[in-house]
Design goal:
- The longest helix has 16 residues, at 2-17.
- Strands 1, 2, 3, 5, 6, 7, 9 and 10 form an eight-stranded antiparallel β-sheet that branches. A three-stranded antiparallel β-sheet has the order 8-4-11, with no helix packed on it.
- It is mainly β.
- It has a single domain (37-177), classed as Immunoglobulin-like (Sandwich), CATH 2.60.40.
- It is built from one helix and eleven strands.
- The protein is elongated.
């Protein structure tokens, strides 16, 4: 009997020491939506050309987003890889162009204001266009290709004769699927 009591005590002690704890499980789903890359290619740089200081004496020189200025406008081509989809266009442009090289006279930067149009017309920057400047625009691409034309205004103010030499800046277009 003593052995039986010892075994019973041992069994009871083991049972207490292996108490069960509440358990739970959960599951989640990992997912991804893989889409084709959107490509943005520079077709043409924005080029104000050679400007005489006398041409700036009015305070500014503009390149409007018109078909007559298309040969000088900046132009991006966008390959959306799908049509009838919504996209966000984000344009980042400097507020001034910086002088390139070393000159003994002249301002180090030339004030610049950018303008841009999105269109699906490869030759006319104003055809069925969505206008925007630095910032974002939401567009629906009816076709797989679109174009962003970039123009702007150089604003020298009254001191046009203080600008001398070449000036440039970088304009970046980013495109995101919406």
């Amino acid at each position: 009997m003593k052995l039986f009591k010892s075994l019973l005590t041992l069994t009871f002690a083991v049972a207490l020491s292996t108490a069960t704890f509440a358990q739970g499980t959960g599951s989640l789903t990992a997912s991804a939506n893989v889409v084709q890359d959107i490509t943005v290619d520079v077709q043409q740089n924005l080029d104000f050309g050679t400007i005489l200081t006398g041409d700036l004496n009015g305070g500014s020189k503009s390149l409007a987003l018109t078909s007559s200025a298309a040969d000088s406008l900046g132009k991006f081509q966008i390959d959306f890889t799908s049509s009838n989809a919504n996209f966000i266009l984000s344009l980042d442009a400097p507020s001034s162009l910086s002088r390139v090289g070393t000159f003994s006279t002249g301002e180090s930067s030339l004030p610049f204001a950018v303008t841009a149009n999105y269109t699906e017309n490869s030759t006319d920057p104003a055809a069925s266009a969505t206008s925007f400047s630095s910032g974002e625009a939401s567009v629906t691409a009816a076709n797989a290709n679109g174009y962003v034309y970039v123009g702007g205004t150089l604003n020298s103010g009254a001191a046009a004769n203080t600008y001398n030499g070449p000036y440039e800046g970088t304009i970046t277009l980013s495109v995101y699927a919406e």
